[in-house]
Structures are given as C-alpha cells and as structure tokens.
Amino acid sequence: MTIRVTVWNENVHEQKNRLVASVYPEGIHGTIAEALNEDPAIRATTATLQEPEHGLTDDRLAQTDVLFWWGHCAHGEVADHVVDRVCNAVWSGMGLVFLHSAHFSKPFKRLMGSPCNLTWREAGERERLWITAPNHPITAGLSGHFELEHEEMYGEPFGVPEPLETVFVSWFAGGEVFRSGLTYRRGAGNIFYFRPGHETYPTYFDANVRRVMVNAAHWAANPAARIADPSAAPNVPVHEALEPIEERGPRLHEAGEAGYR
Amino acid sequence: MTIRVTVWNENVHEQKNRLVASVYPEGIHGTIAEALNEDPAIRATTATLQEPEHGLTDDRLAQTDVLFWWGHCAHGEVADHVVDRVCNAVWSGMGLVFLHSAHFSKPFKRLMGSPCNLTWREAGERERLWITAPNHPITAGLSGHFELEHEEMYGEPFGVPEPLETVFVSWFAGGEVFRSGLTYRRGAGNIFYFRPGHETYPTYFDANVRRVMVNAAHWAANPAARIADPSAAPNVPVHEALEPIEERGPRLHEAGEAGYR
Amino acid sequence: MTIRVTVWNENVHEQKNRLVASVYPEGIHGTIAEALNEDPAIRATTATLQEPEHGLTDDRLAQTDVLFWWGHCAHGEVADHVVDRVCNAVWSGMGLVFLHSAHFSKPFKRLMGSPCNLTWREAGERERLWITAPNHPITAGLSGHFELEHEEMYGEPFGVPEPLETVFVSWFAGGEVFRSGLTYRRGAGNIFYFRPGHETYPTYFDANVRRVMVNAAHWAANPAARIADPSAAPNVPVHEALEPIEERGPRLHEAGEAGYR
Amino acid sequence: MTIRVTVWNENVHEQKNRLVASVYPEGIHGTIAEALNEDPAIRATTATLQEPEHGLTDDRLAQTDVLFWWGHCAHGEVADHVVDRVCNAVWSGMGLVFLHSAHFSKPFKRLMGSPCNLTWREAGERERLWITAPNHPITAGLSGHFELEHEEMYGEPFGVPEPLETVFVSWFAGGEVFRSGLTYRRGAGNIFYFRPGHETYPTYFDANVRRVMVNAAHWAANPAARIADPSAAPNVPVHEALEPIEERGPRLHEAGEAGYR
C-alpha cells in the first residue's frame, strides 16, 4: 500500500534569503519530498503556506497518510482554522512528522499541550545523533549514531511531555544535549518529532537524515480507516445500556439531548 | 507549608437548576473548598466564571499552588486569554486538578492536545473506582476500591494521551469502564484528572472522593519556585558556549537576534 | 514477509483434565496456532513444556519472530535457563505475546520486574473488553468493545509497570475491572499482554480473540535483524573516542580489560 | 518524618585498590551516608556485601525507607535470595536509588526486566548533566546543568525500559550522551537511577551530586504503610462478589483452592 505523504513548508526563507535558496533551490519541501519519493512505497507531494488554505484543505488532509511539517519564521501566519483542521486529522488517524524548528509551530504546540521551548545557537557546530531505541522502526538501516557536521544547536530542557519513546538523543560540540527523536500518539495519530534541519545547512540531503524521514513515514502511517469525528462524545441511553439498568435519581439532561462542549 | 488551592467552578447549574442548587447550596466550588479546608495543610478559596477575569488574574494564579477546575455547560464562555494564562501557570509549576466534566474544558483540551472525548449516560448508576496504582500518594488512606451509588457514566475510549500513571479505573453498572484517575506533567506542572462529580448527585460530599481531592492537592503542589517565563527559548551565543567552539558556516540570524515563534 | 510464530503451551491441563481436553482437543497451543495460521502472512507452529528444552532451543527462538506463551499450573517447572534464553531472545528483537495466566509465568515476571499479581474468580462470568486505544494496530478490525460470555475474572490492581500503551480494559459482571491489553518494549522486543483465555472456556475459538491474536503477531514482529548480544557493554577506548580526548586522572581498569557484570 | 536510608555498597574496591581507598577512606557507602545525613530529615546508615546476609535482612529492609545501591566488580557475589528480598521490599513500597555501575547489579536488572547495558570508557573526561525535567523534585536547588570534570563515560544505548520520567541527560567530552537520571515505579516502590560515581573520582564529594542524592531520598520515600505481601493474588469467591453473580459453567479450581504460581 502506497503511503501518501504531504510535505508542508512555510517556504519563506527560500524566497527571501539567497543563501537558503542556494542550499534548497527546490525549497526545503521539494528536497524532503524528493527524499521520500526515493522509496517506491511512498508518494510524496508538497504544500506551502502561500497556497490557498496553506494547501491543507480538508480534502487534502483526508488524502494524506502522513504530513511532514517544516516552519520557522512564519509560525504566526498559519491560520488557526487550518491548525484546527490539522489537529483533527491527526486525531482521526493521520500521521504527523514535525521537523526541526516546527517545535514552535502551532500544530506541535497544540498537540503537545506544553511550551515546546528549548535553547539554541546557530554556529554550524557538529551534531551527533545517538540511537536510544535500538531496532525501533524509525532507526531501520542505522546503527549506533550518525553525525551532521554543521547544524544549529538545540539544547535541553525541551519543553515537551514525556514521550512514548525516546528514539534519538543528540550531542553538540558546544556542550549541549537534546532529545532529538521523540514519538507520541494523539487520538489515532502517530506523531514523531525529529530535530535536524536548519535552513542554512544541507541537512535534508544527508543520507541518514533521509533514511530517518523515510522510516518515520512508514512508522507514522496508520492503515486503519480514519475516525469520522474524533471528538464525538455519544450519549448511550439507558435502554441501550449493555447491562440492564434502570434510570435512578435526578438528571440534568433531557432524553436525546446532546452533551455540552 | 500551606498549600494554597483555588477551586474554580463555572457556577451555572447552581444558578439555573433548582435540583443542583439543592444538592450544592454553597455551589460545587463551595463544597469542594470546604472539603479541602478540612485538611489544615490546605487553604482553599474559590473563583467562578462570573467574576472579572473569571477570578483568575495573573496575580491570583501566581498565588495558587493548585487549581481545581469544574465546568460543564459553559466551557465555551471561558475567555481564551484566561485559558492561555492558566496553561502558562501550569507550565510554570502550578498544579491543576480537573474534575468530571472538565474533561471537555478548554484548559484540559489545551493541555492534553487531544480530543478528550468519551461516551456518557446520565442514569444515576453505580460507579466503582478501583485503585490501579497501590500506595500512590493520591490513594493515601484508601485501599482496593470505593463506590458511588449514583453517578453519571463516562465510558471508554477516553480521548487522552497515555498518562504518566493510571491511578483509578471505574466500573459502571451499565457495562462500561473508564480510566477515572490519570496523572500528567506539562512543563513544571502536575495535572490530575479525576472523573467523579456529576452535578445532580452529592458526590463531593462523599468521604472517599474528598480524600482523593485532598490527596491530589498534596500531590499536585510543586514546592519549587515558579518558572518566570516557561516558554522562553534563549539563544546561547558562541562566546558563551560551554565548550570552546568556533562559528562555522553560514547563519540566518544576526547576533543577538531573538528566535522566531 | 511471513511472520514465524511459535505458540508455547505448558500443555498440562489438557492431559489431566477431561473438561479442558474436551474444550481443546488439539491443546490450547493447537487451537491458537490454528487461529494464527488462518492469516496467510503467519506461519505458526507449537512447542510445549514436555519437549526437550521445552521446545525452545536457541535455534528455535532464533527462527521465531513472535512467541506466544500460555502457562498456568506448571509455571514452576519451566527451567530457568530456558527463561534466560527467552528473555535474551526478546531483548534481541523477538516479539512475545503473553496470554491470560501467563501473567504469573517466569518470563513475564522477569521481563516486567514486578509482582504481576491480580485478584481472580472462576465463575464463568461475562467479560467485556473495551478498546482504549482506538485504531491501534492490535485492534484492527474491531471497534468499541467485544464480549466473552464466560470467562474467569481477573481484577485490579494488576501488579505490572505502567505500560507503553493501554489497549484494552475489561469490565466483569461481578464488579471488577482489569487492564486486559497492555504493550511493553524490552530491549528490541515488543511485548503484549492479553488477558482472556481460561482453560475451561472456549475463548480461543472466539472470533474477536482470534483477531486480536493475529493483530498482536503482526504488531509484535520486529523485522529488524536480531541483535547478536543484547547485553553487550563494549568499552570504547580513548583512541577510538569520536571526539579527541586525552586520558586524565587515575583509572581502575587496564587497557583492553572487560567490564564487570 | 525522618527518612531512613540504608546505603549499600559492595565495598570491594576500597579494600583492594589503594587509589579508591585514598579517594574514599570511609568507603563509598560512608561518604554517601555522610552526604545524606547532612539533611536533618534523613537518617542514613550503611550495609555492605561482607556482612551476614549482606546486611540486608528482612528486618533491616522493613526499617529502610530508601535503599541506595552501589556495586561494580562483585555483582555476581550478591546472593540471589537477598536480591529476591530487595525486590520484594521495593514492591511493598521501599524506595531504591541505583548509582552508577549498579546498572549491572542483580536487583536493577531484575527490576528493569531488560539488559541494562551501555558503552563505557574510563578516561577521566568531562561529564555535563543537563536537567530535562525542570522543577522535578529530584532537581530541587539545581538549575540548567552541572559538570563533573572527571568521570567515567557511559554511552547510549542504555538498555532500560522507557522510564516514567527522564530527569537528566549527560554530555561527555568524548562525544557520547547518556540518559543519566531516570525514574521508574515497580509495585509500590519508587526507583531512581543516577549515573555518576566512578570509584576512582571524588564524585560523591561533589555538592551537586550530593544534592541530587538528598533529593532522590525524599522523592523515593513512600510514606504509605508497606504492602504486607506484594505478590498476593487473592481469590474473590462468588459469594463475595461485589455484584450479584451466579457461578456458571465448568471450573478447574475447587472452592477455596489457591491459585497457581
């Protein structure tokens, strides 16, 4: 079964900064999609902030098994109703892979329920990612560790909830560490945060990073049919109770009334 | 050290429904505060939706070690900027105990990052809460299980993230189960969800429920000083790096520039 | 890729108790293997306590992607060196599905590191299993809940560590609840505990139970190559350090010496 | 309430190695106990491998709120029945803090259910411990990070189950990282693993390390009364069921019979 991936990028640095444009002439989204499409089991397309609805209509999300998200300087420009839509899609079963500075994106903060903050330094220093969950599907084909010679530093504390699994922890030349690969589940949706990918370095051309992204697409894809309304809170009336009970005592709701939200 | 608790209640049913008013003549908030104040180590006060800023100013939250939250029919009337403030206080270290229908409150949904939905039935049926984490601080003084003869049913699936700990699981006469006591941590804040407390039953007069609430106040209180800005993402400049590094390669940010949010 | 399953059963009740023999004429292991083999992607065989090495040689385990374990009255007869071998296989990547009374088996207790105790009653009462993790791979093809009209009761507290995920919670007619589907990871091995399956009831002929077991086999299988020595603790000598360091200060170990265990 | 701590040490290096003896003239156990006793709320005593029953009788464990464990070259000499006793005490509510090379001690491996392996290098290199759980009780009085100028390196992957909380992650000069502060709960017992403390360096004289150990003693102490038999699996007979049920169908056990273990 083909995994349908949509790679979303704010696509701003590439338009405004000659350096970023030269590193990613196809845009960060283009490079990531190209990396994913090297796996014949994946069909990756792209969407950007500038498109109507940021390219993320209900229909597009319904056709997306896994969304990748890259954002940085334009987090605030992402429309709240699109964020709602993305969260809803995750809860219904869409996978979502957040990359690098997406730690401060609206959907990540919304899905984590926490500040998602960290410390940072842009010095092109060495990052070494250590696998902490050997033989995890996201680390398939890798072993031990891999290095990125030039990366932005992200340091702990990383303001996220305890993850389901810690898959990578990074070492930085300047002395910091960072939990750089974390899994979560929200509703029926699998979420992976993966740290690398500063816009001024060619990180998304790195073979190990590309491998992790391909693995993450496979891991995050949930083959189950989407949940139609992941926030539904159905009333189960007394006469439909699975065990015979009689209504007792006072009640607030009229029969057939919907619950409060 | 005294634990300063603020019991927040939307306080709407008590004003509009004669039955609820007769069960909780002091308001649900009043009864809960009274229960907590039976412990000399706790000083509980109340706040309600109707007060300016819903009674939850920055100053009030700064003076609150643990907030209790009860809401049901007026979730939508809670101002978003107050919700932001409450979440920020949690991240900085305030404890937060969500009761019953607060599962659909704005702060709970925001802090969980998930739908927080469930199934429900208002039939006054028997609920039996089983302790699943023996000797957990929240279960102090209890053992095995306790019963509430008349409660609203909440059924699984409960749309929340995997908790840190599952403390209670409920059995319902009509055939459902529910994870009715769950712990979380968001930033420096301890969060406890506790299921019982439908407005038409005298649940908050029950000795076991009161005991759990007192225990939860103790458990959720974080004696550490509050984190001033829990979302701060400080830059660590090259010359302040803990290990000697030299800046290498291109960069996007000017020296001293703040990060994007 | 075919998933190679070995279904292990102590196979004692079937030999000694006419009732159990009549319910499971092929043995519990035979029935489970037959259920799994209905999925063309699975090739299930069996092994029992009575075989040399209980049928679980190193070679057999190396050829097993997922082991299923059923035991009850003969836990104490399982040889400790076989238990070591099974745990080692799990750590190296073999999946392991523990069924019902295997909660007290040696491998389960060893892998959990906890008492694994519970309460129980053999009264043929109704069990209703509620899905608490919608769209989890282990629940594929199921929705909401399913019932077993006659089952042994297992009640909380269940003496296990907090799981990675709670997949099922059971309701029992006599008033108890139980976390009846739990996932864990130990080393590279995926572990699933699944509650139903008392030997005097035809539980393993139930379509929903069989579906869960097939799903669990798929979920637990780890396609990665086995880790050769999952307990290896290699020394990384100074001259092979990834960053240039000089040895400083005193040391206890001679160069090339192995660590203590 | 005074927290009664027993600091256990194999006490072998101190007897055989002049260097270790000179760093820890009172033994590692003596130094740790002295550090803990600086807190008036703690009363720490010591026990060693050489004492009868290794100093860990049932009575001694019953009088211990929190056990600290340091071992390295003599893991194999710890008697299995003492290990059973220690695990049982943890399950009944005793706290247990494992230090450094205790990662390979029998009780730690037993309680984790996993290999507990890692990589290592004895080069006196710099370790920097980063707090990943700000305002956690175990980090009280600390902020950000602290350094140990000379330590043994431990590197990932650390073969332990996903923890309840990751409290510290270490950076090493030679290029590795390690999750150096992890919490677990097994039965009613709180467990903390804390990495630093190689025998040839004066780590347990470091003010920050001592602070963490004091904090850990407070965190791990469970004020609840010990569970008498933490492995008990009581039968709940039909006539004592909480809901009226009738026995149905066949059963294996005679009335009043104990369950199998």
Automatic annotation (TrEMBL), chains A, B, C, D:
Chain ranges of the ThuA-like domain: 4-220
InterPro entries attached to this UniProt entry: Class_I_gatase-like (IPR029062), ThuA-like (IPR029010), Trehalose_catabolism_ThuA_prok (IPR009381)
Transmembrane segments: none
SUPFAM superfamilies linked to this entry: Class I glutamine amidotransferase-like (SSF52317)
Annotated Pfam families: ThuA
Gene3D superfamilies: 3.40.50.880
Name listed for the protein in its UniProt record: ThuA domain-containing protein
Lineage per the UniProt record: Bacteria, Pseudomonadati, Pseudomonadota, Alphaproteobacteria, Rhodobacterales
